[in-house]
Amino acid sequence: MKVIDIINKLSTARLEFQTSNGSVLNNFVVPFFIDKFDLRNISHSIALAGSRGSGKSTYIQYFSHSTRFDRNVTTISEEEFTCILLYWKPDIAYCQGLKSNWLGDDALRFFSIHAALSLLQELSSLINNISYHFPEIITCLKDNGIFWTRVAKVTNSTINDINELNSWIMDYKYEISTRLNPVNLDGILSIEPKQMLAYLTDALRLDYDKFSDTTFKVFIDEFELLNIEQQQVVNTYRKESNKLLNWNVAYKLNSKPTNETTCDQWLQSPDDYVEENLDNYIEGYFKIYAAEIFILTLQNAGLTCKVPQLTPGFLGDRKNIEARKEKSYQDKVISVIENILPTPSIKSLSEICITNNSVKNKLLTILKSLNFSKEISELIFLDTSLALTILGTYKQKSFESELIIKYLNNNSTKSEIKTIKDKINTFEFNTLLSLNLQNAFIQVPLYAGFERFITMTTPNIRHFKELCLSSLKQSDDFDSNIEYLNIEDIKPITFIGMHKGSITSSTSLVKEVISYPPHGNKLSHMVNRIGELFRISQKASYQSEPERDIFTFTYDYSGADKELEDFLNSALSWRVLVEDESRRIKDDKQITSKEFQLNPVYAPKFGISYRKKRGITLTMEQFKVIVSGSSESFDIIRKQYQQKWKSDDSEGTQGILL
Amino acid sequence: MINVQTWRTEFVNEAIQNPKTKTYDLTYTDIDKYDDRSDWSLNYISKYSNEIITVSYCPQTVSLIINNNKYGIRKLSEYNLPKGKILIDATTLALPEILHLFHLLNDKKRSFDVIYVQPTSYTELKTLGIDKIKLFDLSDDGLGIQQVPPYIGYSAHSMLFFFLGFEGHRLGSIINSDEFDTRNITCLLGTPPFKLGWENRTLSNNYKQFTEISSSSNTRFKFAGANDPIQTYEIINQVYQSACYEKRNLCLAPFGTKPAAIAAAQFAVNNKNVVMLYDYVKKKNKRSTGQDLIHTWSFQYTD
What ipTM score was computed for the predicted complex, to two decimals? Predict the structure, then answer.
């Protein structure tokens, strides 16, 4: 394969678009936590929450009958019949259009018909999938006849086999689609989805032995996007879940679906359901998981991997989890990925930076002004991390030349050494960020490397893949005529290629924010303006503290400002913001308990840090201007911070530090 | 069904005179005062119409507010349509109002005229830097993409026909909502545009979205004059026929020019299984400046 073919094959990000039958066989890397979190083994009703791109749908589909009984599975254990999972992603745009203010009670009738037809389709597909492996199911259903008799009752039509059922569903869907404009329910069936499913699954148990003890679980995806009345109906089903028929939902993390039901008894957690956060499960294993997924994606694009275990079949089989947890295996995986996406250490980034003559000259001038001797200056140049740290911190009040001299002469105490090392840990990367922003002719590849991609994208697999793809695209040193067969043959992408790829991808993701409904404009204002403020901070000639990239504002989250809280929930739900409990509460008077960071994947666009370091506190008025104020009002805030941080906002090549 | 019988185009300064008798008995409009064109069209219809009726659509209550009276969409036929010659001022009305007025007039078997005033320019977004695409500051957040009742239908397996405008993020929100299958998308580009070169603005503002959908779809492009509802109607019909052939619903997302939205509304009223999408963005004040041409289309009802 040529590089361009690999890039084109990798371009399809959403896995849903790659499957037409709902199966994710050989497209799914079984995560390590699967035994703890097998959706079929959990007895209570589940609400699966996960941020956008965390792979909720794929995770559910892995357990659904479409994957478990995929025709390409070679052997199927009897245990697969213990619990069968039906996956339903409602036609959200259609369901949202079924408004009760328009259709009155008929709105829920149309919704019920949609749900019933979709679930009937799922049952049909289940029988079809099972018949690939257990063809006798068709005969059993035909000979015993209970299922088809009941199907006939539900559909009010004579239906004797799967083909007739599929044909009836298609015809009836069409019939329903003609009944909305104008609204006409005359002669339309009244099908109650839960009753229908209970009735038909019972028939399956009676007709086919393997189903006799089966638990049927329904998973409804994108639950948060259904209308409130529709959520209430589903919640009533969830509340009435039992061992035979169990209703579950999945929604975006931080979305706030209702817990109301159609009766007085609301859904309560943990009595009626348990919310499981997929992000929390993924975060612990993200690095190895992302690496495996990228390798699998390359394999599905047509490349092979020389590491014998690394095959789609191996990665998709849960029996191999223990083997995949072994260090030797993980080292091999990371080695494959690090070969393509090598991570430069901060020290090596400093070495790249210091090769720049302007940086070198500036450092010489500074060292001279600090009265360092020639010998000490030479030693400083040999320790590039220290050199860069001096460049970034020499204006600080706490800067002590003596401490550095002692350190370089090996006369420091342990605590003095620790002070110097801490300073380097804190300010070396910070200085590199500042130099990149202050000087257009310096481009240190700060966002390059697999490790940094992981830090910036956890737990979003889709973002990780986008950074990888963008790096491949940006790397212009591939010979376009070379045919690649193995993943290992792909030569390492240059640091600068990965750096540019990160910036391109990050810029594209920032541009995408405006199209996140329903607060796209405001979200986009917030991301661009907060990013701009932190860019100003990072560009300042004097870095008094580590990178600023956290913000908070004076609000108590008590529900007093519903509009603001809706907006923040939307920002968190789209993962435009990352929220954390405030760690910087200084005194009891500070009422805010939460702090926020822009999604770290946006950092390259603004040239700021993805590391969570220091922050600023905004007033509510300032935050509201940032979110929805005019550009003139924001300009006032921008200039205030520019003055405060003594930063120059000109885009030219005029250096500040240099 | 309703069809365009005649189309008259004039420069605005030639169009407005002091007629001895008023041409129209009633005009449906939205007195929004968003830009120069709103003021001009209000002045125009005041001179040419005996009665001005304000119309707005409320997506939450799914009702049309006609002169402050609320009519649920399902009971819109209960609205007592006044007698006389009817004009619709499409300059100020958004797609949902135009769609429901067309629906109402078609139901009542009435012919009518539609006017639309083109602006001389649209307001650009103030941005720093010289290398950025010219962005336009036309609208604020809406409710997100929704189907407009009663033009509701399955979106899965539908054929999406998106009319491109100056705000690429409106196409972006369809892509990011994950609710529409953008693998089967057709885009309409208004060309020739209102003004020479404006099609480049449309392309550059939607470029990012094109690259995004091109990775997973085979996007088709169609072209029709930006101010030509007749040609646009014919293009929609082509796409509709192909959707019908493939047994798909046609989902229209008319987020481009108003004349194209007029064609979409007319098409939806005249045909079955058409789903209409709208995002209910809030128009910004001073979103456009000046008035250029005024178009008058006469719609004839036929059985």
Answer: 0.91
